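User: structure tokens for this one?
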Amino acid sequence: MLDSTSLISFWRAIEIEVQHSFVLYHCQVICSWFGNVFNILYFLLAESTLRFVTPFVFPLVLLLLAQKLWQIYIVGTKDPLCSSPLPPGRMGYPFIGETLDLITKGANFYRSRRSTYGNVYKTHILGRPTIRVCGSQNIRKILQGEGKLVTSQWPTSTRAIMGTGGVSHAEGKVHKFRREVLTQVFHHDSLEHYVKPIQDVIKESISNWCQKSVVMGFTECKRVTFSIISKVLLGINMTPHDQEQFIQAYHEFLVNLFSLPVDLPGSGLHKGLKARQFIKEKLDKIVNEKRRTLDKCKSEDALTLLLKAQDSNGNRLSQEEITDLCIEFLFAGHLTTSSAICSMILYLAKEQSVVDNISSELFEVNYLYNAQNINQGATLDLDGLNNLQYVGQVVRELLRISPPVGGGYRKALETFELEGYQIPKGWTVAYGIRDTHEAAEIYKGKEVFNPNRWSMQLDLSQEERFTYIPFGGGDRLCIGQEFAKLVLKIFSIELVRNCTWRLQNGTPAMKYLPVPEPVDGLPVEFTEAPAFRPRSLTV
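Assistant:
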């Protein structure tokens, strides 16, 4: 009798033979096709004419050959043992696929294809054959299939630029270990220590905006979150010059995260790796300096906690892991939170009734007024923030209508099916957060910014719970989600009780790669709020 190992080997041999025969057949088809093409050209064109047109025909034939081989390569990656077809979609041009279209169109690239092909479709982006997935039921299968159906695999350029020492690109026991250590950075007691320094940074920034009158909103939001990350998480105070240098390098780092996997001078990947090296050298110095003074350090920043942290077996993070985690902090906490607080300014400026409701809630808990009237300087605390129901609804609605992260990436560990289509083993699976939020029919008036929709407990089925996934889900649920929501709550409170603001250009056009960002930079006029006002409305 055949044992299980022999049976598996037998079926694998059959699979290889099927694939070999499949490719051989198509190679024969190509040779026959191009032979016919050349025969037709030879007979139709006189020798002198053929000599003239050959320099033009030959490149054309090569392009046609490349396109034909590209199609065969794509079809060849289909699992021949699965009877279900590949999803509909386009694979673009040889090697580059549809990457250029994605980079130029951003979220509209996904919207147009979703409207044409539905919730599951194929494409080729960032050097990989990819299945794009949205819809709560499909997302649930992907996120809950971690380690069985799929595993985390971001694009090659993203992994190279961000490094492999963080949480996002780790798998198995390594991923579990790093998450266990990071929970010590984001648990309740740590968050309590972060409240006051976050509040101080935000208050100082808003005060500066009021003095300048008109500022570029998105640029200033990036400065705010960078200060929060550097002071609260890394425990450092940079000079303005060093901060600007770091921000410029990090901008180069971010804009090239999603690029073709080609490391040549001038390419996006090359620029991103150069920026990573600059950032890594700076962070290594910070980490080493912090390590030297660790025994005397009494600060409660995240970097200090990381250096001291250990898992249940006493294991500690390596230097490379700590540096890459700091880079991941900057990515997850800087750019995405910058986008979110910029969206907060935008949506609250358009919805004065929401600002009015925030003010009312702050008044009720003495965060806006006290017995001596004005109480703009009230110090916040974590429990008090968590008890602000309406502010929590505002944050939740903001993350629904404008999630900072548009999606995530996985790799299929085995062939499986979604909506009757096969998802071949080895293909990238890109799940859409923004797409899923936009397509969810459970939200009435889903295009409208309406925090009141969260005032009642929505009766969600198991699948419908995945209609709201701003922080992903499953085993890779964003470990810093409570920190991000904390920043957003404090920002909305300080914004409402310290100033009024007006958009200079009305509602701006948006671009979405790598995060939602106003095309015009969101110029905003800020004015210090008058004392003894009953409301802090935008003007």
